[in-house]
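Human: Note token order:
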Amino acid sequence: MLSGVHIHLLLNHVPILGSIFALVLMAFGYFLRNNTLSKASLWTLVVVAVISIPAFLTGEEAEHAIEDIAVVSNAVIHEHEEQAEIAFWALMCTSAIALGTLMASMKTNAVNRTLLMLNMVFLLLSFVLMARAGNSGGSIRHPEINASATSTGGQAEHEHEEEHE
């Protein structure tokens, strides 16, 4: 049977990938003035938000499963937890706006372009926050993420020093 840790690991990519998919779909709907694509993007966003709930709720169990492993930094875990919480609530607010936009479109059978643009702005912000949370989560068990960023930065500094000698 799947534990909370398994569920967390299975679902934690959905909010990131799903939100960028919904954003691209929404942009196409907006710029092509296609009502069907616009509504599909809003429903996609709502589904992504619903799927993100178990990913978020199982994060605590995943934390407890890994926090006693010596190679894992509690500071990195805490940073991920904080970023994930902010990203989760941003996505929840964005999906609430999407639901409101869908409800408003029921009367006219057309998606309000101003509301759709508002959705895109909030969804872009949510995606950025989700991507940051995902990156910090990845660094918990993938130290090479931080190592490559550090080594690239260190190499650039070393090359910069050589130019000035």
User: Anything to note?
Assistant: The mean pLDDT is 85. Helices lie at 4-11, 14-31, 35-57, 59-66, 74-108, 113-141, 144-163. Residues 74-108 form the longest helix (35 residues). The CA atoms of residues 1 and 7 lie 10 Å apart.
